[in-house]
């Protein structure tokens, strides 16, 4: 049975706190694992969350500020130490190539795993697999930053009542799915389009076109909400979003499940973020991220 869930490894903005580690998020998607923004301490958080190095197939870094990338050195070395049996791909802004290389080779270790570097140079697709297309879109932050989006190909949902109306049952159900037609009845007549799931990951940014492109129609949107709405000037000045801004994006984009994260240490009450998100008019499923939380993607 396929598993699609977000494993939250860390949720702190800029510095860790007593209750929040630096950023880190693992998306489990049908047997693959995509690790986003491994900040300092990610390797230990993986241990606490039951995430193994073998679970990582792809690493996506939004930008090279320390709270989003300082854990890269440890994660990459752990992948090699554990001799992960499959190749791993890494995506990050091309302008940060020197930072990636410094982190990848921060200390001596034995390389045992093929790590493919695929820097992001512009908006658009980065990788296409059987179960998703990975895209990146430019965000607005003091350093070059990109958000990421996974889109599953559309499929088809068989409708039992239509099968019954055409007298199709047993092995013939599989046959019409494979061949597309059975005794003059087409697959389209007994099924409907099942839209593929969409996942979006948006970190440090002001409001910009990239935020909306990433969030559009997402089943799950993981998005930073560093500040509360009363500190919107601070948010804009430092290239961040408020809880209300993030929720308004989700509302306008038709997001099903909104996950707010990346919280400033100045706030101690998570419920404030939920209140402001609801006040902004988002009425979908809402999670205020906590370290080690697991959040399943909405059912298709």
Overview in brief:
With 300 residues, the chain is α/β, with parallel strands linked by helices. Helices cover 26% and strands 26% of the residues.
Mean pLDDT: 97
Uncertain runs with pLDDT below 50, 5 residues or more?
A: none
H/E topology pattern: EEEHEHHEHEEEEEHHEEEEHEHHEHEE
Principal-axes geometry comes out as globular
Total number of strands: 18
Describe this structure in words.
With 300 residues, the chain is α/β, with parallel strands linked by helices. It is 26% helix and 26% strand. The protein contains ten helices and 18 strands. The protein has helices spanning 42-49, 66-69, 72-81, 97-104, 160-165, 171-179, 209-215, 232-238, 243-253, 271-279; strands spanning 4-10, 24-29, 32-36, 58-60, 88-91, 115-117, 124-128, 133-138, 146-151, 155-158, 181-182, 185-186, 191-194, 198-202, 220-224, 257-261, 285-288, 294-296. Helix 10 (271-279) links the parallel strand 16 (257-261) and strand 17 (285-288). Helix 3 (72-81) packs across helix 4 and helix 9 (243-253) packs across helix 10. It starts with a strand and ends with a strand.
Write the layout of secondary structure elements.
Elements (H helix, E strand, L loop, with lengths): L3 E7 L13 E6 L2 E5 L5 H8 L8 E3 L5 H4 L2 H10 L6 E4 L5 H8 L10 E3 L6 E5 L4 E6 L7 E6 L3 E4 L1 H6 L5 H9 L1 E2 L2 E2 L4 E4 L3 E5 L6 H7 L4 E5 L7 H7 L4 H11 L3 E5 L9 H9 L5 E4 L5 E3 L4
Parallel strand pairs: 3-4, 4-5, 5-6, 14-15, 15-16, 16-17
Antiparallel strand pairs: 1-2, 1-18, 2-3, 7-8, 8-9, 9-14, 10-13, 11-12
